[in-house]
Amino acid sequence: MTEHQHDNEAARQAPAGGDDIILQAEGVTVRFGTNTVLENLSLDVYRGEILGFVGASGTGKSVLLRTILGLVPKASGTIRMFGRNLAELSDQERMLIDMRQGVLFQHGALFSALTVLENIQVPMREYIDLPKKLMDELALLKVELVGLPRAAANKYPSELSGGMIKRAALARALALDPDIVFLDEPTSGLDPIGAAEFDELVIKMRDTMGLTVYMVTHDLDSLLTACDRIAVLGQKRVLVEGTAQDMMQCDEPWVKSYFRGKRARRIVPSEDA
Ligand SMILES: Nc1ncnc2c1ncn2[C@@H]1O[C@H](COP(=O)(O)OP(=O)(O)OP(=O)(O)O)[C@@H](O)[C@H]1O
């Protein structure tokens, strides 16, 4: 075993932060100048769950995601991934952690000049050195995994439908067989059928691969049908967290109007209606 493989193996076996917590944010504060966007925020994400992350526009969902990914600095607090404090990692250790997480950014964010296959290979090229033929085979497996036809592999993003772009972006997020994927508004722009199909795909990944999913979404259907737990961001922190049923019973004003307002009632008819 090479030193690199040994380190990789050590990172894979790193103990979770207790009780199978795969990601833990503790007392996180993020500021831009004098604007405090997140203050003393704490959140646990458990292995193998689909966590839906929701909140009013501008509350800081993207900022938290970017902070977790190390793209935005925090003023204070701790973020642990797989039990490791991200602030204490060497560059090499950080790279090994990064390899275990996949990201689907809002709007798919595929490279328009690359084919689907080449897009899926971007993380492979960044982190591992494989012969082209093997990379092609691995990327094709991912194409099939997300339910795209093999013929889509050589197409460019502009030749794909919105739903196919989301699937291709998910295939790229899964390129390195991550333990956790971060999905930023994955069903936005899809029609309800396309969105439901995407949710089913995510559920299948959780069930068959034990994938942990952190999904930022405004999609009530996704929150109520696909998510095991929901966390609501408000007042610069996680205001409420729990199951869909907990959300339906919660009397916090924003949560109440979101989950039991007019729009919600079209999806979940109230029992006494
Ligand atoms: N790079 C930045 N510099 C300064 N302020 C920023 C930066 N990024 C985000 N913000 C501010 O942080 C706040 C939260 O933004 P964020 O994009 O995280 O909200 P959001 O909850 O994801 O909203 P939406 O649901 O509309 O996507 C906003 O007030 C935004 O202006």
Automatic annotation (TrEMBL):
Keyword ATP-binding applies: yes
GO molecular function: ATP binding
Keyword ATP-binding: yes
UniProt keywords, alphabetically: ATP-binding, Nucleotide-binding, Transport
Entries under SMART domains matching the protein: AAA
Pfam families from the UniProt entry: ABC_tran (PF00005)
Limits of the ABC transporter domain: 23-260
Stated family: Belongs to the ABC transporter superfamily.
Cross-referenced PANTHER family: PROTEIN TRIGALACTOSYLDIACYLGLYCEROL 3, CHLOROPLASTIC (PTHR43023)
Protein name: ABC transporter ATP-binding protein
